Structures are given as C-alpha cells and as structure tokens.
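Example 245.
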Amino acid sequence: MRLVDFHCHLDLYPDFEALVAESDLLRIFTLAVTTTPKAWPRNNKLASSTKYVRAALGMHPQLVAERWREIDLWEKLLGETRYVGEVGLDAGPRYFSSMDRQMQVFRRILRSCAEAGDKILSIHSVRTATKVLDLIEEEVPQGRAKFVFHWFTGSISDARRAAALGCYFSVNSQMLATDRGRALVSSLPVDRILTETDGPFTSEGGSPARPRDVGRALMLLGAAKSLSPDQSAEVVLRNLKTLTS
Ligand code: MN
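Predicted structure in complex with manganese (II) ion:
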C-alpha cells in the first residue's frame, strides 16, 4: 500500500534528515511544508536527492506578525519550487490581531503564484475559510494555481464552495476522530481528498506522528467514505496524480 502525507513539518523533528530518508525508503509521497522561507534551502537540499519527498516554500500565518518582512525572501525563492506552504490565514485568539498584515502577505503570495502559474499550495485556514476563499477568487484566475486545504475546519458550505473552485483537502487522523470532522469529510467529493499527518502537531501512540503513521488517516478516511483501506489508498494516490499532473 502506497502512502501519501501531503502536509508534514519534517524540519521540526529532531531527526529531520533521518525522517526525509525514512519517507523516501518507505516510498511515502511526503510534502515537507515549512513555516518560514529561511527554512527553504535546507529543506530543498534534502528533498532534492529523494524520489518521494518534496519541499514546499512556506510563510506561516502564525508567524506573520513577527516575520512579515520575510515575504521578500519568500518571493525571491518562489521560482525554485512548484510547492508552496504552509501559507494562509489564522484568526484564532492568539493571531487575530495580525489579520490585516496576514491578509496583505497572503494576497501577495496568491498574486505571485497566479503570475508564476502551475503552483500547488498547502493552505492553513483556521477560522478564516470564507476569507481565504474570497481572496483566492479575487487574486487567482481559474487554473493559475491549485489549492489543498490542510486540516480544513470550515463549514460544509465553505467546503462545497472550495470544491466547486477545484480545491483539494488533506485530512488527518485527529480531524477524523471528531464527529464534526467526519461529517465534513463524508461531505467532500472523493476525488478531492488527500491524507496528511501535520506532524509533529498530531500524535500517534503518544509520540509525534511521522509520515509512516499516515495509514491511520487512510483507515479512518475509508471508514468515513465506506471504502476498504486498499480502496482509500488507491483513491488518494489517484488524487495525488491528478493534482500533480
Ligand atoms: Mn501545519
């Protein structure tokens, strides 16, 4: 069974290098998202010698209040990658105060991606799903970029709107452990679903989840969609191929 972990912070683990090698050895397609463009060179270097790991150029909304000036560096590096993330908006209580700045930065990210073309973005949208969709509609002409909502917690109607715009969703085991998460996932079109761990921010058996643990999300996804684990693995792999083709 081939696994897909489309959102994992490999560089936040103490054994970052070993983890890159592990994903590659186990042939798990892993998207190594980053939170600042300063992390790009090392992530890119480690990923570029693998077959199954790809690095994404990030600028995390939770860091924008402190690090918004790094958007210049982010923009300078964009030509080196097809994958972008983690980017987006966060209106949770700790980050709400930087919303204006977050919107400026995210608009700039979307515009740059639209201009460059052919980018795939892993999107954070805590309490901002509607706003993120508004910005995507305003800034990115159809077909100029592809979007994957990671750990989507918006409403079912926002999810429907995202799907109509062609967006994908990467789902993890923690999300699928709640009734709300399961209801959301069962409402999603099956051809738009990918799996993720969001490690190290989720855990497996008391330790931070690693890409090899993404089978658990696959199993829960199967349960939510009435598919066998093999079928859900096939579906996710097919979706990844469509997304990246
Ligand atoms: Mn994340």
